[in-house]
């Protein structure tokens, strides 16, 4: 279980936000802008939580101590299976405490303005808002592929996988996957290299592929490819 949980921690991006050793990191240090924002040192935070509290953080966006939890992708993780949540928790509990506890985030004026306007919402609100916002259902045979996109791809490509255009950049509708051969799709997910030797419009995909999606198993990559092909070919 712990081995599966360790792999999940990579696929789901835990180490991208909380650091490769899960000891936290400073995401922004601009008191006059977004503020001073830290991702928690999970090796110090997790021992203070029960499994139920940790499950609430992951899947409900509810923190046992803070009033609101920000930037935690619980809106995606609420769709994780119980078995995967259990495996992830087992792995996180196995990591020995190290480093210093990180401070709570201190939002700056820009972040506070976006919070007041509703442009930025706490994790718990996003969980409620997006509970039933799911990608296209291509049927039971594509359940695994859809599940993987629900807990990974929607983060950048939107809840319906139709792409996103905002101040953080542009991402395509994943209908583009239908233009890839299976081998080309593997190269994209493992190395972050698109078909035809093109350059990615959003370089973040390359980083995510190498650090996260490269840890998907061949069977999982098969499932994602088959699902995205089925989605692209659905009746309009």
From TrEMBL:
Q: Where is this region: Disordered?
A: 96-117
Q: Report the InterPro entries cross-referenced here.
A: Cyt_c-like_dom, Cyt_c-like_dom_sf
Asked whether the keyword Protease is assigned, the reply is no
UniProt keyword annotation of NADP present: no
Q: Where is the Cytochrome c domain?
A: 1-96, 138-232
Which controlled-vocabulary keywords does the entry list?
Heme, Iron, Metal-binding
Q: What is this protein called?
A: C-type cytochrome
Q: Which organism is it from?
A: Sphingomonas sediminicola
